[in-house]
Design brief:
By secondary structure, the chain is of the alpha/beta class. 48% of the residues lie in helices and 8% in strands.
């Protein structure tokens, strides 16, 4: 591939000696974990380098310049690597598919697989978990694309490890995801002038929340299968335990990655928790309605 020659010619760029991927999905605490790891200054600079939606945004464009994600991989590896040689990146299930299709030159921006749209088309009938997973499995192309992407990255990042983020309360995660999508507010910085303002009011939507619960179950199932296929034992982190013990969770991650945290900078958390009374009210409302519909 072209990238091999590009990496060999890029001696001025920082090359990783090891690395990790933060795998998971929205609203599992990935932003919080990224903040903590970045603040140590010894655990890479993990952002969503391989997200198709990020490719034209200023932060990634500043890294890539005129290059695309594949040809510009040396620049991404350099940007994501701290001086001690540790590379980090945050990656979602669909990012792996995007990377593989970019490698094969088959990515079509106008023909994305819309899993949310697929499930939404089945509403107002609410699908059970089994029905929905069966439907999604029937529409997902060969998942060997995901393995291809991982093996590609692993060939350039030695000792590539996995941090797998999950959330035990799937209803709370889905509600948080839905509200972020509808309001456009994904996180708020502590101390900002608007940090104490209430979230914008939006309407409760049983179908949209249920759809995101199903998508999370589907992705968790396929993450687990994927880790088995590539022979990886991930370090599992659950949102609930992480927020209860941030220092302990960070130590656990650094130990798993075999990073000496003795000289690490102390993490400063700059984003605040966004759940509120509406979140709790909606959770109870969803559970009642979903149980009545026979899909909980």
């Amino acid at each position: 591939m072209q990238i091999a020659a590009a990496i060999e010619q890029s001696s001025e760029l920082r090359k990783p000696s090891c690395g990790y991927l933060i795998c998971g999905m929205e609203r599992t605490g990935s932003t919080l974990l990224v903040q903590m790891l970045t603040a140590t200054q010894v655990a890479g600079n993990p952002i969503e380098y391989f997200n198709p939606d990020m490719q034209h945004r200023p932060r990634v464009r500043k890294i890539l310049g005129d290059s695309n994600m594949i040809d510009g991989l040396p620049k991404i590896l350099s940007a994501g690597t701290t001086p001690n040689g540790v590379f980090g990146a945050k990656i979602h299930w669909n990012h792996l598919r995007f990377m593989a299709m970019s490698l094969l030159n088959t990515w079509d921006e106008g023909k994305r697989t819309g899993l949310v749209d697929l499930l939404r088309s089945q509403l107002p009938k609410l699908l059970t978990r089994a029905e929905a997973v069966e439907l999604l499995n029937s529409r997902i192309p060969d998942t060997s694309l995901h393995k291809m992407s991982f093996e590609f990255l692993r060939s350039y990042v030695p000792d590539l490890r996995i941090l797998w983020l999950q959330r035990r309360n799937e209803v709370a995660r889905a509600i948080s995801h839905y509200r972020a999508l509808k309001t456009g507010i994904w996180y708020r910085h502590i101390g900002n002038s608007n940090s104490n303002e209430p979230m914008p009011a939006i309407e409760f939507d049983l179908g949209e929340i249920h759809t995101r619960i199903i998508l999370a179950a589907f992705q968790d199932l396929h993450w687990e299968r994927f880790f088995h296929e590539v022979g990886i034992s991930p370090h599992r982190l659950f949102y609930e335990e992480m927020v209860e013990d941030l220092p302990g969770s960070l130590r656990g991650v650094l130990d798993f990655l075999e990073i000496d945290g003795a000289g690490a900078s102390s993490p400063t958390i700059i984003s605040e928790k966004q759940s509120d009374e509406t979140s709790l009210e909606w959770e109870e409302r969803y559970r009642t309605a979903a149980q009545a519909a026979g899909v909980l």
